[in-house]
Specification:
This protein has 132 residues and is α+β, with helices and mostly antiparallel strands. It folds into 2 domains: 43 residues; 71 residues, Arc Repressor Mutant, subunit A. It contains 3 helices and 7 strands. The strands form 2 sheets. Strands 4-3-2-1-5 form a 5-stranded antiparallel β-sheet. A two-stranded antiparallel ribbon has the order 6-7.
Length: 132
């Protein structure tokens, strides 16, 4: 499976995800995978969060987001992610199948929606590919 999120970042207050092109002292130059446009993102104005640094809380520890995406891909054929706007019960039930020991007290429905939204975005733009 091809899963490379090492250069993908979430930028607070901006929609979608971005790919880091060049780090700078005061920010980063990113490319929007949707439009292909490049832009400078200032660290003074925005929070820049690399996806590879995000983890999901579990009852014992935490699991890296990359591992969650990998499980989602492995189960995609038999258990595709629900729609982002699905009801809370559907989202939590799906997420429990992907991360059986996730901590429902520390992982909100909004977090689950964000993971699913990001997964679809990354898959659509070729950062996540199926089994090789």
């Amino acid at each position: 499976m091809n899963l490379d999120i090492s250069k993908i970042v979430y930028v607070s207050e901006l929609p979608g995800l971005y790919e880091i092109i060049t780090p700078r002292v005061d920010g980063v130059i990113v490319r929007d995978p949707t439009s292909g446009k490049k832009r400078f993102i200032s660290m003074r104005r925005y929070n820049i969060v690399p996806l590879h640094s995000i983890s999901i809380f579990t009852s014992r520890d935490a699991v890296e987001l990359k591992s969650v995406f990998r499980r989602m891909t492995e189960q995609y054929e038999d258990n595709p992610p629900p729609a982002v706007d699905a009801d809370e019960e559907t989202l939590r039930s799906y997420f429990e199948e992907i991360v059986p020991d996730y901590d429902p007290h520390r992982v909100s429905v909004g977090d689950i929606r964000k993971v699913i939204r990001w997964y679809h975005f990354l898959k659509e733009h070729g950062y996540i590919a199926g089994e090789e």
